[in-house]
From TrEMBL:
Name of the protein in question: Imidazolonepropionase
Function: Catalyzes the hydrolytic cleavage of the carbon-nitrogen bond in imidazolone-5-propanoate to yield N-formimidoyl-L-glutamate. It is the third step in the universal histidine degradation pathway.
Residues at which 4-imidazolone-5-propanoate binds: R93, Y151, H178, Q242, S318
Cofactor(s) needed for function: Zn(2+); Fe(3+)
EC number: 3.5.2.7
Length: 402
């Protein structure tokens, strides 16, 4: 019997799982903790207990439960954790993309086009846009998604964008330092971002971010932004080394940032710094795909022992995709990752980048965020690129895609 979408009454036993990715090496084979012919029990009742995984193991030892779901020989994974996305915006940048595909380069300046459209949009329009993208992501297996501000760039608009983001996710990031808006000089703008704008935004965010790049903010400005956020209780993360070599990655490690994102242009010193610290390197291959840029060298980071996450960077300028399966396929084909490494990076890697231990794994006590693939193995995510393989998704124990 299959319970209805949204019903959390009673415990649910999912059997017939051909391959289960637990991401716990103690539970199964290899770093992904793979169990073949597996079963999972989601605990019964509503509220917190109904959100959790109650049992994981071989189907032959599965306990009884109130309800049953037959996975029919399909693979089950934790929901994707997309730790880097810009979802609150209006308009699109189709013309810019088209021009780029005719040979123009990507620059930070295009952000201002989206800022103008976003400032002119109503709260309702912006919120509907976020809901659409979050829904799109969910249908592709993403059960946790981070969301940044950064297209408001005034005190009122940045706070507004964060309030809207918080209606859709707990992982909200203050990115007032996305680019210097046309009406400001850079120093005055950094003062605003680290002062009055931070005061208005800090109550609505968990994270502080800055775009450290030529054409955006330099190392000193990025340091000022992150340090002011830290003083207000926000945890730093950073856009670093996307378009050029720069100080961003080393700054991230020095400040103990949760994540350094992009990491496209790295020196040996950057890789050494990441390997010696706790900062996750979050790679965003959708951005390289959509800007026709060279991909980051994931192999080099992994071989150095760096923790790597994969995310979409969903935004209207450099990477307009919500698809984590697409990013997994790109990471394997273009960045030297194995399918196992890419799947780990898109699930538990993302959780590490968000400093979460309740998601990204299928273990007892974790949030019941699960997806079933219309395939017998997680490897198919890379092996069958562009194919809609996500056939069912549970979020907090509720089946939200069927
Ligand atoms: O992560 N690099 C800075 N921000 C986004 C791009 C934003 C835009 O182009 O609108 C990124 O790629
Ligand atoms: Fe980004």
């Amino acid at each position: 019997m299959t319970r209805a979408v949204g019903d959390t009454t009673g415990s649910l036993l999912i059997t017939g799982i051909s391959t289960l990715v637990t991401n716990d090496p103690q539970l199964g084979e290899g770093p992904l903790g793979l169990i073949t012919d597996a079963a999972v029990v989601i605990s019964g009742g509503s509220g917190v207990s109904g959100e959790e995984i109650a049992w994981v193991g071989p189907a032959s030892r599965a306990p009884a439960a109130d309800q049953m779901y037959d996975a029919g020989g399909r693979a089950m994974l934790p929901g994707f954790v997309d730790s880097h996305a810009h979802l609150v915006f209006a308009g699109d940048r189709t013309a810019e993309f088209d021009a780029r595909m005719r040979g123009l380069p990507y620059t930070a300046g295009g952000i201002r086009t989206t800022v103008a459209a976003t400032r002119a949009a109503s709260d309702e329009e912006l919120s509907a846009g976020v809901a659409r993208l979050v829904g799109e992501a969910l249908r592709q297996g993403t059960t946790v998604i981070e969301c940044k501000s950064g297209y408001g760039l005034t005190v009122e608009d940045e706070a507004r964008l964060l309030r809207i983001a918080a209606q859709h996710t707990d992982e909200v990031t203050y990115l007032g330092a996305h680019v210097v808006p046309a009406e400001h000089d850079p120093d005055a703008y950094v003062e605003l971002v680290t002062g009055e704008m931070l005061d208005a935004c800090a109550p609505h965010a968990r994270w502080v971010d800055v775009f450290c790049e030529r054409g955006a903010f330099d190392g000193d400005q990025a340091r000022a932004v992150l340090e002011s956020g830290i003083k207000r209780g926000l945890v730093p993360r950073i856009h670093a080394n996307q378009l050029t070599h720069g100080p961003g990655v080393r700054l991230a490690v020095e400040l103990g940032a949760a994540s350094a994102d992009h990491c496209t242009h790295l020196t040996d010193a950057d890789v050494d710094a990441l390997a010696s610290g706790t900062t996750v390197a979050t790679l965003l291959p959708g951005a390289e795909f959509s800007t026709r840029a060279p991909y980051p060298n994931a192999r080099c980071l992994l071989d150095a022992g760096v923790t790597v996450a994969l995310s979409t960077d969903c935004n209207p300028g450099s990477s307009f995709t919500t698809s984590m399966p697409f990013c997994v396929a790109l990471a394997v084909r273009e960045m030297g990752m194995t399918p196992d490494e890419a799947v780990w990076a898109a699930t538990l890697g993302g959780a590490r980048a968000l400093r979460r231990d309740d998601v990204g794994r299928i273990v007892v006590g974790a949030r019941a965020d699960l997806m079933l693939l219309d395939a017998p193995s997680h490897v198919h995510l890379a092996y069958r690129p562009g194919v809609p393989l996500i056939s069912a998704v549970w979020q907090r124990g509720r089946q939200v895609v069927s």
